[in-house]
Amino acid sequence: MPKLALLFLLSLLCLDAQMQEYSILPEKKNRVKSMQIHILDSKELKFKKLHGIKVTELSALAYNEGTLYALSDRGNLFHFALNIENEKIESLVLKQAYNLKNRKHKDLKKDMRDSEGLAFVDGSLVISFETQPRVELFSLEGVKREEKKIHKDLRDKKRYQNENKALEAVAYSEKYGVVTAPEVALKRKDKAYHTLYAEKKSWDFLACGNITALEFINENELLVLERVYDKKSLKGFIALTKVFLDACNNGVCNSKLLAKLESKKGWRIDNFEGLSKVAQNRYLMISDDNDSKNQKTLLVLFEISD
Question: Which of 130, 141, 63 is nearest to 107 (CA)?
Fold first, then answer.
C-alpha cells in the first residue's frame, strides 16, 4: 500500500477510535421501565482538533443521508460520517471542520458566533443564535446565505431574560417552516410555559426545564429536549417532551412527557443540548462539555416507543 494511502487510512482509524463506550443508564433498571423512550446506545466522544478547530462545546445536531452535522456554540461546524447498524452507533468519523462565516467569507465576529440551534433544510443548514438573537441560513460549509424572518416577539433582544437565554433551538417542517424557541420564557410571559415560534404563529406548552433542542417527529408533533444542569455539581436532569401543535386549547398545546432522566436517580447524564432525527422514531442527542475537563461529550441513540 502506498505510504500516503496508509497514512490516510491510519488517520481515519484514529479519528474513529476517538469514540468510546459509555453507559448513561442507572444501575437500577426499574428506573427505566416507566419511560416511553428506549436507550439503544451511548458513546463518549474525544476527537482531536481538525484544521486547528477544537471539537468541543457541541450544542446542536442535524442529520442527512449518513452525514451528522454538529455545531458548537463557538461558531464551529463539523461534519461526521455516521454509521448506525443493529441499533448501535458503529462508527463516527470526523470528516470536516469549518468556522462559520459571513457572506464575505470572513469568520463571524465574537459577538455574532454564539450558535445554538441547527436544522438541515434542502441542502443547507438553518442556525439559531443567542447573543444576537436571529436565525440564518448557511451553506453546508458554514457560509451565510441569508437571514430568516422570525416572529415579531423575538426581534428585540431586550425582551429575552438575558443574552444567554435567547434562541437556543430551531427546527424545520414544510408545514410550519422554521420553528424556534428561546431557552426560557420571554420577559413578562408566564415562566410555567414555553413558547414555540414560527414566523407568524406561536404555541405555548407546559415547561419542564430549559429548552435546548427541537426536532419534528412528524407533521404536527414536535420533540423538545429540556434540561436543568448545574456545572458545579454536575447534577440535574433532562426531559424529552412531545408537543402536539395541532391540539391546542386557549393557546396552550397538549404535551406529553416521554422521559425524564435525573442524575439523582442514577442516570449518568451531562449537559445535553443537541437533538436530531436519524430514522423513523430514532434520534441522537449530544451533550455540550463546556470545554471542561469535568464534563463529557456524550452521544446517545434512542427510540421513541410510545
Answer: 141
